[in-house]
C-alpha cells in the first residue's frame, strides 16, 4: 500500500509504502515402512512418518526520499512445526534350534525356532512448535541511467518461544551373552514437554543490475549465510546411554549449520516492443554440515548442493504481462 501524497520529484509516485504478507517457505513430508529379513528368516521392521513445515508472517515498510535512493525494513515471525513418529521392532542374534521341527511351532513365519535372542521394540511420537523473530534491512540505489545496486542484511534471529512434546516407549530383552547385563531387560516409558527452537542465521545479500542497451539488462546477486551453533531443536530431553536418540532415529534434530554462499545471474532481452525473454542461473548450496568432517553425535540433516537454470518468454503491454518458462 502506498502512503502519502504523490511527489513531482518521484515522477508522481508516493514516497512511502507498507506491505503485509503470509507465506509458507516449505512443507516437506516423508514416510516409509522398512522391512528386512535376517539369516534366520525373522522380519525386522521400521515404520516412520515426518511432516516439517515453516510459515512466515511479515510486515514491511519502505521509503524513497529521492529518485535515486530508497530503503526499507521488514519484520518476520517464523513458525516451524515438526511432527515425527517412529516404530521399530528388531530381533538380534540368538541360536537356531531345528529340534522342534520346521516351521517353528510358536512362530510359524520362520523356518526354525530361535532362542536367546535380543528383542528391541521402540515407539517415538515427537512434535514441536517454535517461533522465531527476524528482521531484514534493505537499501537500493540508482547510479546514473544504467546501474542499480542493492544490499540486504538480516541479523541472527531471536527465539521467542516454543514447545516440544515427546512420548517414548522402549522394551529391550537382552540375550544371555549380551556384554551389558545379560539376561536382563529394560522397559522405559516417558511423556515429556520441553522448549523448542529453530535458529535463524544472519544473511547478507549484495545485488546489481546493468542496462547494456535499451533491449538488454543483466543482473547478479551474491548471498552469504552465516553459521549456526550446534544444539537440538528440542533441548533438554533425556537420552539413554548407548542408545539412539529418544526423539527419533531418523529425526535430524541438530541445529548446527555451516557458513555458505550462493550466486544468481540473470538477463532480460527485449525481442520486440511487447515480447521479451529471460535467462537465469543459480546455485543452492546447503548449510548442512559435512558429515565426513563432523565429529558430533547429533543427527544432522542431509547436505545437498544444487545448481539451477531457468528460461522464459513473455509479453507485456499497458502495464500487464504474461510469461511462461522452465
Outline the biggest β-sheet. 14 strands, antiparallel
Gap between N and C termini: 31 Å
- The averaged pLDDT comes out at 88
Identify the quaternary structure here.
single chain
Spans where pLDDT lies below 50 across 5 or more residues: none
Strand content: over 45%
Q: Structural class, from secondary structure content?
A: mainly beta
Q: How many helix segments? A: 0
Topology, number of strands: 16
Q: What percent of residues adopt helix (DSSP H or I)?
A: under 10%
Radius of gyration: 28 Å
- What would you call the shape? elongated
H/E series:
EEEEEEEEEEEEEEEE
Characterization of this structure:
- Strand 13 (260-270) and strand 14 (275-284) form a beta hairpin.
- Strands 1, 2, 3, 4, 7, 8, 9, 10, 11, 12, 13, 14, 15 and 16 form a 14-stranded antiparallel β-sheet that branches. The chain has a two-stranded antiparallel ribbon with strand order 5-6.
- Helices cover 0% and strands 62% of the residues.
- The chain is elongated.
- It has 326 residues and is mainly beta.
Overview features:
single chain, 326 residues, mainly beta, two-stranded antiparallel sheet, 16 strands, 0% helix
Map the helices and strands:
Elements: E1 2-7, E2 13-37, E3 43-66, E4 69-92, E5 95-97, E6 113-115, E7 118-143, E8 147-154, E9 158-173, E10 185-194, E11 203-211, E12 216-225, E13 260-270, E14 275-284, E15 306-317, E16 320-325
Antiparallel strand pairs: 1-2, 2-3, 3-4, 4-7, 5-6, 7-8, 7-9, 8-11, 9-10, 11-12, 12-13, 13-14, 14-15, 15-16
